Amino acid sequence: MNRQELVDAVAAKTGASNAAAGEVIDAFIGAVMVPSRGVTP
């Protein structure tokens, strides 16, 4: 599954727009990636 497919799936499941779902996915990935690199936000 690529990013767009994930965005589409989240949007369909939640009823959110693709833009809103994309923002949530980006925020989630950013939050997960920062700690895994040893950086504290």
Keywords for this entry:
41 residues, mainly alpha, 2 helices, 76% helix
**Based on DSSP secondary structure assignment, what is the total number of beta strands?**
0
Helix content: over 70%
Count of DSSP H/I helices: 2
Main sheet summary: none
How would you describe the oligomerization state of the chains in this entry? Answer: single chain
Note poorly predicted spans. Answer: none
Number of domains: 1
Cα-based radius of gyration, to the nearest Å = 12 Å
Order of helices and strands: HH
Q: Strand fraction band? A: under 5%
Tell me what you see in this structure.
Helix 1 (3-14) crosses helix 2. Helices cover 76% and strands 0% of the residues. By secondary structure, it is mostly helical. It has helices spanning 3-14, 18-36. The chain has two helices and no strands. The radius of gyration is 12 Å and the shape is elongated. The model has no long low-confidence stretch (mean pLDDT 89). The chain has one domain. The relative contact order is 0.14. Keywords: DNA-binding. GO terms for molecular function: DNA binding; structural constituent of chromatin.
